[in-house]
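Sequence in, structure out. First:
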Amino acid sequence: MAGICIVKGKKYGKNDPTATILCVNCILPYSIANKNLPLVHKLPRFLDVEASSLSSKSYPIEVAWSDSTGHIHNYLINPYAVHEWTDWDYEAQQLHGISRQQCREQGVHPRWLCNKLDQSITYTETIYADGGPIDQDWIDVLFQAGSRRGVSAFKVVHSDAIMLPILSQVESDPKRRGELYDQLKYEARQKTPGHHRATFDVQYLIELFLLCRNYAAG
């Protein structure tokens, strides 16, 4: 059974790896173009990090990430496990609602969380976050503290890199595409019960991706 890549408009066999690569790049399930084929339900993976502050001495205090089915893993991190992790911004605490004491009581050791991330996210895999390089920096801080390797084996990329190519298939004008994107962001936030917690922000990105994909699919 053949599929069609939305971007290239070419037909490929069901098991052709080229079709998989192309359709990952265009971010649309290749079966969307052929209504006789079932939709591919596999989702991109998303990540969010809450941190002690926005300073150069900040460190992650909560990490959440989703799998390809949309299930979200979420963990607080114990800052007392790392001697150098003393930074704390009480204004940031007012936003995310996480206290340092809560992290101490409920948080996991950075080493444990690094192992969990390595088990869950495959080597060289790309995972998307709306903080992009900022979230990557905090993930690197986590791995510097909790892994002998010192860096994550996966790559964190800004979520715009996966959302905007979808919308570009149906809206070529950059200004109108940006306005459409802003509207879909608003709708995604309305579907998400909270904000400034890692789980809620990952759920928001999943909702936003689905809105973009559904809009492009018509």
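Second:
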Amino acid sequence: MVESSPIQRPFIGRKCGMTRRFVACALSVVAIAAAPALLAGQDQKSAGADATAVITKMENEAIKAGLANDPAWYQKYLASDFTGGTSQGTWDTKPSLLADMKDTKNNNTSTQTLSDLKVRQHGDLAIATYSTTYDGMYHGEKYARTVLCTDTFQHQSAGWMLMAGHCSEAAKK
């Protein structure tokens, strides 16, 4: 024979009332926890449209800054731990990219165009994919090519920051 503990005995006969209170409490907790997600979902479309507009502007400004060899955009919008994979098969960091911009004799862009830009948002992350065609010099070697790029942005307290990017040479047509 199994005995009930003295702690359980006072609730005998009131089990149904406790179950109702538990269910009501559980439903309240679920409703409170779900409310922010439901409210955020209402603004998802407009937030996505805003992110697309902001990141489109940022991508175009980055090209203008590169053509002018102006490091201000990169200083402001690259994350401190930014990583970029180049179409030359090397890695860039924020410090290395800013240092390259100071060496205008060996690193410069003569022309650059952006096309097929698409931005998609996933919460506080956004992915931009695009093609860019450029003519310039990188580490003393001349390059003229079209590359396919992916940039990953994160929305932080200061706004959208470029966390990582990667470009690969496009297939020759």
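Remark: The longest strand covers residues 141-156.
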